[in-house]
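Protocol step 4 of 6: record predicted structures for both targets in the notebook before any analysis. Target 1:
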Amino acid sequence: MGKGDKKTKRGKIAIGTTGKLRPKRKKFKVKPTTLAEQDKKDLQ
């Protein structure tokens, strides 16, 4: 087990792939709201 093993975290880093052990990072979970949208919600 090491850099050549596809099933380990170190191997995934060396190969440059993702999977169950090393999932892709999502940038944003929630879409950010603009100030105009917030003002509309506050007025209602």
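Target 2:
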Amino acid sequence: MEYGWFSHVLVWVIGLMTAGSIVSVSLALFSMGRQGYRKG
């Protein structure tokens, strides 16, 4: 296993985790906003 390959995989894993967290946070904020609008 080469060091460059491992670092490349690490960067991909971190990027995927970051993208997933951003998507989940934006979806949570969107759903909360819609619930607020519905109540009002």
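Step 5 preliminary note on target 2. The two ends are 58 Å apart (CA to CA). Residues 3-39 form the longest helix (37 residues).
Proceed to step 6 after PI sign-off.
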